[in-house]
Design a protein that fits this description.
160 residues
């Protein structure tokens, strides 16, 4: 049987969903979003995304001023690249609104202040943990690695 779970679907138990302001751009259900200054949430860009992060759970048109978002819980997102089970996730670097596996920057034996600041800033981009593909949530199937465009199950905690 094929799982019909789509990006932006979420498991309602222990999930926190609410309406919030959005900027002037349209947002597609399932997109990872960040706050665009004081103008509201937008689809998280491939560079320059900053937390806090949320997931759009209902598509919003450019003319809409409100978007329904999830900032904590189990939600389904779209993967970028290979993501191994249990990996921490950050905003994607090729396709806006997707997530990829977090890879920590290597810091030398004698880190300088710039290294410390970079490590702090990249840690703030972590938005959740990969739990498996959408058809691996039956309690009997072990999670496997996801690849680009897979719908994945995420324990989402929104970053900072």
């Amino acid at each position: 049987m094929t799982d019909a779970t789509a990006a932006g679907d979420y498991e309602p138990v222990h999930s926190f969903v609410y309406p919030d302001l959005k900027d002037s751009s349209a947002i597609t259900k399932g997109n990872l979003c960040d706050r665009n200054g004081s103008s509201g949430f937008r689809t998280a860009p491939v560079s320059g995304a900053i937390g806090p992060f949320v997931v759009c759970v209902k598509s919003a048109l450019a003319a809409d001023t409100i978007v329904s978002v999830l900032d904590d819980g189990i939600v389904y997102l779209v993967a970028e690249g290979t993501i191994n089970p249990g990996s921490l996730l950050v905003p994607a670097s090729s396709t806006a609104g997707r997530v990829k596996a977090y890879t920590a920057t290597t810091v030398g034996a004698t880190p300088g202040q710039t290294d410390v600041n970079n490590a702090r800033d990249e840690h703030r981009l972590i938005v959740g943990r990969y739990m498996g593909k959408r058809d691996e949530n039956d309690g009997a199937t072990a999670p496997s690695a996801a690849t680009t465009a897979d719908i994945i199950r995420v324990r989402f905690f929104g970053g900072f």
